[in-house]
Specification:
Blueprint: H1 2-32, H2 36-53, H3 58-77, H4 83-89, H5 93-102, H6 108-116, H7 125-135, H8 140-151, H9 156-176, H10 182-187, H11 202-211, H12 215-223, H13 233-247, H14 253-269, H15 275-313
Amino acid sequence: MLAAVRQSTAIRVVAGAALATGIAAPLLRRRLKLPPPAVTATAATAPFALCVLMPRSGRRDTGVCLLQMWAYIATYEMPNDDPEALERRVRIAYPVKADRAIGLGTTPTLRLQRTLAHAPGAFHTYEKVLVWSHWLWFLFPHGTVAYLLLRKPEHFPRGAAQIYATFDLGLIGYWAVPTAPPWYAARQGLMDDGQTPELRRMMVEYGEHFWRSGWAPLYGLLGGNPLAAMPSLHFATSVTAAHVLTDSRAVGAPLAWLYAATLGVALVYLGEHYVVDLAAGLTLSEVVRRATPAVAPIVQGVSSAVRALESRASA
């Protein structure tokens, strides 16, 4: 009996330390000059540590999702901890060439803006809708997970795993092949084709118009890593969320697909992503969906191991 108590205490102490370290590492990474792999590894253990410390409940599921995104955000932002080094590595030209081929000599972004946009400072209603669809993306994937947790709990484990796997796998591209978005390429002169008007970053233009003095701090808070365009996780996670809602037979599933399509148009029109970024995001989403049955046994094995530790910790 005493041995079981000691084992339980030891497991809880280790799990508590892992949880605290996983939360603290992203916050302290710059001050302590922590290497990125160590930050990601410690942050990624925090959701598992919470599972060991708390019995399964809606609160624990919410905490696990939040900790998962905490690890994601840290890993997403860390390439930009050294902006100069990131700019030396960033790829700018290849998506411009690819989208020019798709657009028959002119990128789809420039074709759309030149055909449909007003002069700078004036915005059509549909442009405002497109900008807001971009801004509201921050709510869509996580709102889908919250919906499953509250209304379709039987679909929550699979759906949340697919959405957050899409987030996490996209980070491979951001680290391995950091790629600039269209607006950045335009600043470097790679969009010049001898015609006018030149490519505009319309989301920022409208943001400054709508939020006024509040735009700079808002964008500074949410910007994170401006050179992470390939694949488009805006589009990839939205497609995955639409799939998840369809699989759960949610009433709003058709609206989710309409939103994903609208967002795809917005990302290209506003100058935030290339068509090839969206194509890569769509491919990532479909790979996650199709790979789910194959990796399910591995996930079940990890889940069983965590439940065994949870049981020992509560003994």
